[in-house]
Amino acid sequence: MTELVAIPLILITLGAIVMPGVARTIAMPVAVVEIVYGIAIGRSGLALIPNAEDPFITFLSEVGFAFFLFLAGLEIDFRSMERAGWKQNTLYGLISVIAFALSITIATQLGWGLWVGLATGATSVPLLLAVVRELRLSATVVGGTMITVAAMGEAITILLLSLVEIQQHAHTLGEGLLGLAKLLGLIAAMFATVILLRTLLWWYPRAFYRMVSEDDPSEVGVRVGFGLMFAFIGLSMLANVEPFLGAFIAGAILAYIIREKGALEHKLSSMGYGFFVPVFFIHVGIRLENLTPALFIEHGPWIAGIIGVMLMVKVLPGLLLLRQNLSVPVVLATSGLLAAPLTLVIAIMDIGMRVHAVDAMTNTVVVTAGIIASLLFPSAARRLLSDVPPAPAPASAGHGHGHGHGHGHGH
Question: Helix 173-203 and helix 205-212: axis angle, to 10°?
Answer without folding.
Answer: 100
